[in-house]
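User: Predict structure, ligand pyridoxal-5'-phosphate.
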Amino acid sequence: MMDRKIYLDNAASTYVSSEVLNEMLPCFNALYGNPSSLHSFGRDATAMLDKARDRIKDSINAEKASEIYFTSGGTESNNMAILGVARAYANKGKHIITSQIEHPSVLEACAQLEKEGFKISYVPVDANGLVSIPDILHEIRKDTTLISIMTVNNEVGTIQNIKSIAKIAHDYGIIFHTDAVQAIGQIVLNVQDMEIDLLSLSAHKIHGPKGVGALYVKSGIKLEPITYGGGQERGKRSGTENLPGIVGLGKAVELATKNHIINNKKLKSIRDYFLSRVAEKIEFYQINGHQHQKTNEIVNISFYGVEGESLMMLLDLAGICISTGSACSSKATQVSHVLKAMKVPEEVAACSVRFSFDTNISAADVDYVVDELAKAIAKLRSISTVQAGRA
Ligand SMILES: Cc1ncc(COP(=O)(O)O)c(C=O)c1O
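Assistant: Predicted complex:
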């Protein structure tokens, strides 16, 4: 009976760290007030919200804490940013630029805007998953109001040139949003230095709880709310605040930022060791994504002739958890839109799997994973009709 478990799907979600959990626990019983209440319980709850807001403000170098709005996660933050800005500036123009490799929460929000009469340009990426500045420039029109480009791609880990793209946007008086859900803790995020107007975050990718996130909105940027009600979050996001989640988010963002250098050093050595062991034991594969301009957390590999889903399932039997494509679309069988945009041939994209590491992975874990990986690949190739060396 297999009881060893190795979780290599940290880009999908992470465990809640004990530091984060310990800060959250009092909010479930002792600190149960509603931040909107005026009595002492309400004031205590408001103080906790303020502390979390300050922590996020400091971590991303926002100018004011009031620029941080709490949400139910990355999906809501992206929807709030895209729908909110598009609708607030619709009288100025109805054109938006985004990329072909965005998370569905950006692409589907844009699809909704198309139904409302907006025009969306989906810029392509190169074979490394990078958006090019000339491609952005090519799409800019007089009626462009928003450019939304993700900081780090969740499937391949490629890091975009956000500062340059934001600068171009501002040269043309266009608002710039970035989905930084996979970036926080992996790279330094400094909204003032990077000229970011709106930035989306989520807690559960950085050892915080699920179902909570934040949207940074630079003061002065107009945003049409997407929910209506009691006017919480300065009228931008009605609904009683998820206090335990928000406290967890604040702590998780603070820790991810504070420990970013040491964590990245660890992740890099785990990733490099994994790749060296793969190179030793396995033949015929390609690594998808940029060679250098990428996070240390994510490795996306296509093992030729081995269907990604079958490999994922065989590894699962050995207690190893990885994913094919992104977690959010892994139940769908179509080929990844990200790899498609990177012009990875369909038969190679169908062989892709994503390993996403955490700092708790040991060298012995990596050895075990690569041994099981080699066995699973040999087994699948022995029954495959596709010749590995040629796929
Ligand atoms: C890049 C990116 N954006 C947005 C999201 C959505 O975040 P959430 O799960 O908090 O809704 C994810 C989650 O997979 C993501 O990877």
